[in-house]
Amino acid sequence: MSLTSRKNGQPIDASWFNAISAAIDALNENESTHEIANGQAATALINQAFDGAVISSVRYFYEAQRNDGSFANGEFAMQFVSSAWRIADGGYEGEDHGLTLSAATVGTVGTLKVASSSGPGTGTLKLKRRTFSV
Questions:
Q1: Which residues, at least 6 apart from 107, have a Cβ–Cβ distance to it below 8 Å?
Q2: CATH level 3 topology of 30-133
């Protein structure tokens, strides 16, 4: 049996492979790490852009660490509502990390941005995400 046909000999549709790929991505939660500068202006995060015509929302879980020892875990959502992307803050546990999350919208595409306060130093922002289709 080949990977392009079922056990009964029927062909496997490409959308079936796409569905399995999406399910595996959801299980892996697409973890990424982003370096944060001290006093950073709102900066787009790499690979954190979504098209509202395809994705209606993105659920994030995060870990923020700054060089002053502040450490926090939290969650938020990026949602496409009324033709614009927005951030819905879910709160955090730990120290005030001094990070401000925002969403920029161009057309239907939304990009996650992060700014940081000056003082706590540089750090990292680790993200895990799950997307929801339109």
A1: none
A2: Immunoglobulin-like (2.60.40)
